[in-house]
Amino acid sequence: MSAPEPPPTDPFLDFFPTHERHADAVARLLALLGPLDPDGDGPFGGRRARERDERDEFVADAVDAFRRAGLFEVVVPPADGGLADLPLIYQAGGLLSSRDLSVAIALGVVALATFPLRLAGTRDQRAHWFGRVRAGDLAAVGFSEWAHGSDLAANATTARRVSDAPDAPYRLDGEKSLINNGTEAAFALVIARTGERVPETDPDARRLNAATQSFFVIDLRSDGVRPVPRFKTHGVRGADISGFRLDGVLVPPDRRVGSEGQGFRIGRRTLEISRGGVSGFAAGQAVLALRLGCRHARERRLYGGPIVALEPVIAALVRAYVEVEVMSALALKTAHVGMYAPLSSRDLTCCAKLHVPDAAFRTIADLGLVLGARGYLRDRPFERLVRDARLLPIFDGTAHIQEGEVVAAAARPAPPGAAVAARDPIASIRAYRTAWRPDADLLRADKLDWPLGRAVEVAALHAACPDLGLAPLAAGRRVLERLLERALAGAPVTALDGTDRGRLASLAARTSAVAALGERAAFDLAGGGAGAVPEARRAALRRAAAGAGLEALALAAALAPEAADSIVDPEDRRSVLAGAADARAPAVEGPLRAAVRAFDAAPERQNLRNRDAPAP
Ligand SMILES: Cc1cc2nc3c(=O)[nH]c(=O)nc-3n(C[C@H](O)[C@H](O)[C@H](O)COP(=O)(O)OP(=O)(O)OC[C@H]3O[C@@H](n4cnc5c(N)ncnc54)[C@H](O)[C@@H]3O)c2cc1C
User: Fold this and answer.
1) Which domains does the chain have, with CATH numbers?
2) Spatial separation of the C-alpha atoms in residues 100 and 51, rounded to whole Å
3) Is 585 helix (H, G, I), strand (E, B) or coil?
4) In the chain, what is the straight-line distance between the N-terminal and C-terminal CA atoms, in Å?
């Protein structure tokens, strides 16, 4: 094992800040949150989170503290005088959810509400509504209706002009539920139908009904708005999950966002961008679970020593550590791609939305076992994590929906810029960082394109950084591509058997996640991070790359037993198996175990090391 070095502790503190004000905002946020203390009493402490959860109490104290600290500017776009680039939003989301997911989603939905305005709002609309956000108004987003759920095109809320006069208001009627901040929010972005609804018996109903949806911003204190009472939820009990009824609410035309009929497209775009942020929430929860698992393993004594000495316990902690690294790398990459190429980032945001909540949930369950009965008791911090984490695969497009998107994305040819990455992937990552302009709203200016093609990205990284141990991942990726080619054979994704689709999608999303960790390590190597890859991160990458390769081999054997030999090249098989053997070697295990032991003890700010680093 090589020389000791500070392990990556909380990967959310290890996000590279995109600009000086970003680093300042994170420092202010950390000062407000205080240390990650599962027993803390402040509004962001674990004890308060448990109290609110137990009483179904809205997280008003935490929202107030956030407001008083002037941190709502974290969700206002830079072009409007705020700080809201996506890496900062994700990082803030991760840090908040490592304290309490209810707080994270109450504040996170304010960021979500800004996206339709960023995509299609006028200058005046932005000035007015972002001004209200900066002043601390909570916002909501009303996509969902009880009867229609994921089928947004079928939504029935109507918006009809009251007369033909050009300044005639719209009259909105309908009900939105379940809506986060549905009662507490001061305003909401809602989707409503400005044209006639086509009956579902019409074969073209979906397309036609989507084309008559429009977006509005509504003041929730207007006449005719009535709250839908809060739902009693399984988790996130500190959040306000409710809704609102609109009975003849008059909305002036300057509160329509975008043109009539553009609502569905704006909504889809919004979700394609925002769903990636759920990965930040999920990874933040896994960070808290790991902290609790490590602490318990150190403190709980059995058979005359701490349980961290028991092999299955340390193995579970090591697995969790690796997964947290992978999750946060994908969240980080998704945030950066989303910032520089938001409108073309959808191939990655679906992977992040599918993989990270699932990985976080499994990690939390795994760590729950380390806590034994103490992970099951209501007056302890752990069990809330299990309930809260169940939400993340549901909203912003369910995991089932993401499966279809991931398979379609993985089957699309690599984007044209891939050749650039093949030459120098690290340079291209750098280029994105330097291209950030604080005065631009990149959600609008979709000028840059993310050049890292999926297959090429892994191969290029491997070529650039052979010692990172990415060969098994690259081999697994080739197996996956052959499987996809074979499974689809020119047919649309919807033609796939549901189980096959799910298995292919989860492998594709995981492969993207591990590649993201590879990029992060390569970026570190190139001097963009600390100038070296922390030993524990390198070990986590080797483990994860070998795991993804093995999963690809297993899937090939399961899905196409008769053709597995033609799908799996002998060299690839060798590379995956050798990588797996290597990943179990003491050279990999040692740093991981050391990192896990240090995780709980390390000072929280240790990895804010980039704070004062000069821009590249
Ligand atoms: C705590 C919480 C907060 C929420 N906050 C908000 C909010 O702020 N704003 C808002 O607008 N909504 C919000 N929602 C609603 C949420 O977005 C919906 O619950 C979600 O869209 C799924 O709808 P549904 O529950 O009606 O399930 P359904 O749409 O009825 O789905 C039922 C099943 O069908 C599957 N399915 C549906 N469509 C497809 C498809 N195309 N392909 C494959 N499988 C599919 C689903 O995965 C699921 O298994 C919230 C929900 C919760 C629980």
Assistant:
1) 142-262 (2.40.110.10), 399-604 (1.20.1410)
2) 11
3) coil
4) 31
* pLDDT, position 254: 97
Q: What is the pLDDT of residues 390-423, one digit of tens each?
A: 999 999 999 999 999 999 888 877 655 545 455 5
β pairing state of 139-142 and 187-193 = parallel
Q: What angle do the packed helices 425-435 and 454-464 form, to 10 degrees?
A: 110
Distance CA(274)–CA(109), nearest Å, equals: 9
Question: Does residue 178 have a cis bond before it (omega within 30 degrees)?
Answer: yes
| 339, 367 Cβ separation under 8 angstroms | no
Residue closest via CA to ligand 1's atom 9 equals 179
CA-to-CA separations, 27 to 16, 19, 22, 149, 485, in angstroms, rounded: 13, 13, 9, 39, 47
Tell me the C-alpha distance between 243 and 227, whole Å: 6
Q: CA dist 356 to 94, 498, 520, Å? A: 12, 20, 16
Q: 425 C-alpha to center of ligand 1: Å?
A: 37
Other Cβ atoms closer than 10 A to 34: 15
pTM for this prediction: 0.93
Identify which of 110, 150, 403 to mutate to test ligand 1's pocket (most ligand atoms within 8 A of the CB).
150
Query: Who's near 345: CB < 8 A, 6+ residues apart?
Result: 272, 273, 276, 334, 337, 338, 450
Question: Average pLDDT per run of 10 along the chain, which is 616 residues long?
Answer: 48 62 87 88 94 97 97 89 86 94 98 93 95 96 96 95 95 98 98 93 92 97 97 98 98 96 94 94 95 94 96 97 94 83 81 97 97 95 96 96 91 60 57 59 53 58 79 91 87 82 94 89 71 87 96 94 90 95 93 88 48 37
Q: Is 187 helix (H, G, I), strand (E, B) or coil?
A: strand
Cα(394) to centroid(ligand 1), Å? 6
The phi and psi torsions of 159 (rounded to 5 degrees) equal: -135, 105
Element holding 485 (H helix, E strand): helix 471-488
CA of 152 to the centre of ligand 1 (A): 10
The per-residue pLDDT for 79 is: 83
Pocket probe for ligand 1: among 216, 398, 405, the residue whose CB has the most ligand atoms within 8 Å is: 398
Query: Per 3-state DSSP, what percentage of the chain is helix, strand, and coil (rounded to 5)?
Result: 60, 10, 30
Contact between 519 and 432 under an 8 Å Cβ cutoff? The reply is: no
3-state secondary structure of 496: coil
CA-CA distance, 390 to 282, in Å (whole number)?
10
Burial of residue 10 (number of CB atoms within 10 Å: 0-12, 13-18, 19+): buried
Separation of CA 354 and ligand 1 centre (Å): 14
Ligand 1 centre from 530 Cα, in Å?
41
pLDDT of the residue at 73:
92
Q: Which residue in this structure is represented by tokens 């591509």?
A: 481
Tokens standing for residue 382: 């752990």
Q: Is the dihedral of CA 210, 214, 217, 221 positive or negative?
A: negative
Give the Cα separation of 348 and 331 in Å (integer).
Answer: 10
